[in-house]
Fold this protein.
Amino acid sequence: MPLTPYQEEVARLLSANRSFDNYLAGGAAIHLEPNTRRYSNDLDYFQDSVERVASAFTDDVRQLRAAGHDAAAEIQLPGYIRATVSRGGAHTKVEWAHDSAWRFMPTIRSDVVGYMLHPIDLAINKLLALAGRDEPRDFLDILDLHARTLQLGALCWAAAGKDPGFTPFALLEMLRRRGKYYAEDFERLNLVEPVDLPALKNQWLAALAGADAFVRRRPPDEVGCLYYSPGLARFVAPGPDGPADVVPHYGRPGGVLPRVLDGDGASEAGETP
């Protein structure tokens, strides 16, 4: 679990305040999974409305101070608050921010952090972040998500549904401008182990090539969807050698579980995250 010990302590403490519309997201949620390459810089809590940001901040600060932590707000704007939380010599940044309720899957419960964004939505949000900003941390995260959660091409295809201003090809063109980093670019990150630049480049070029092939073979009338395999009980990137039972899955406000057709009509697939 690449959260720092203090981040994990704070996240566990605040887990009681989380709900379906007030959840952990961002890098910290991604790095709850094993085998990622870096530690998160902060804890990001998203809320489905601007008003919810203010109430979540108030509740969390009350909980923190009752447990002996200090919480010093640095930025307070409608829909966004950032604070430094500390106790003794340990500290971490914590952010509360409004984000759209439109997502592919409902938020899920975690024994560690309470409610959190579903891994597939975390991956799509991270892809859109990398397309919009050239950050080494986002680059490392996307390579891990490509290997562990869903292939880059399928993420680009679905991301065009999350942000209809993009096409999958436009996103790929923006991503091709990423990946040009030097060793010192990664020295600012809190890494589990040093990175191998030639290996990263080879992984990135292979991911881009696979993504280009994927989006070229998908039917245009399905752009913006994920693909779910009931047999595998997970999202997949369908291809010539992939599962044959894939069904499109589209997002909506609040997210929705995949639905498939069986002999009795539509039913929830009941995916286990």
Summary: The chain has two domains: 5-117, 129-268.
